[in-house]
Amino acid sequence: xxxxxxxxxxxxxxxxxxxxxxxxxxxxxxxxxxxxxxxxxxxxxxxxxxxxxxxxxxxxxxxxxxxxxxxxxxxxxxxxxxxxxxxxxxxxxxxxxxxxxxxxxxxxxxxxxxxxxxxxxxxxxxxxxxxxxxxxxxxxxxxxxxxxxxxxxxxxxxxxxxxxxxxxxxxxxxxxxxxxxxxxxxxxxxxxxxxxxxxxxxxxxxxxxxxxxxxxxxxxxxxxxxxxxxxxxxxxxxxxxxxxxxxxxxxxxxxxxxxxxxxxxxxxxxxxxxxxxxxxxxxxxxxxxxxxxxxxxxxxxxxxxxxxxxxxxxxxxxxxxxxxxxxxxxxxxxxxxxxxxxxxxxxxxxxxxxxxxxxxxxxxxxxxxxxxxxxxxxxxxxxxxxxxxxxxxxxxxxxx
Length: 400
Prior knowledge:
By secondary structure, the protein is mainly β.
């Protein structure tokens, strides 16, 4: 399992996202004193900041040690978990989900954002452990304002109460789904659930309790790979991708078919992207990388040669790839031309991944015990080398 699943909170469509939101009526609207006591955007126990407070959750595969690294001040917090090794790490923009010993141990990084559409709030607090849940073969995590879904490759997804999680309690809110490659995804007040009905792959829209509200007309056979964008949720399908969005309280699915016949080995199986971005990448077998522009409804195949990791910030940014030899490369997405290279890992490691945000990329270097911060708009220049006192086998970024 890689450490590349990372999703921004607050980008899920539908009106429920705005229940605690901005500009709406409330009981204190006529009470100036109450307004002063509870400032707009207030979150108890957290400090609101003017800018994103990016942090990394870092886990050491062999020892089970976990750290939270502040990318602004470079402060490092140790997080004590009852594990002696780590199998994987997932993230949702605030929490890190450490996979170990048949359970998911949850770390509150203490840094997150809330996107209200026309403006954003950034928050920070002290990192802490937030409990654990038993789950076989955890595969992906997605958070909504009400429910957080931790999916499994072997069975139903475990649903967690998001509000309780934010208070440090991992409380189960039930289980849902059949398990497998594709994940259960919170979507406003509903959940998107991949299922097989009469031999066909479909996406069901369900309530938290499991009741089916709708089944999307557009099929998605053998779903695998999921990403949340500002346009909606993208599911990888046998014949391309399915973009699930909401308009006028109606959920719809739009198929984005591959531009050519694609064999099983070359399918997009795991999407990577900047949180919220509509440009997704996925390895295309052993010799290329798929770039999916969900806004334009188009695929592009970039002949990169063999790579161990790939990602992009989208919207004019280069495609970043990492080779088995530890070389970071930048490619122009439109032409496929290689535009810059940097030998990054002196001792290459297949566990190295690429995370991206709006201005930087982060590549973990487990054998060197560092994380490389990359300015991808400046010929993949190494902007900083961040030392960690454990082997950074797995990383996820939070605060964006």
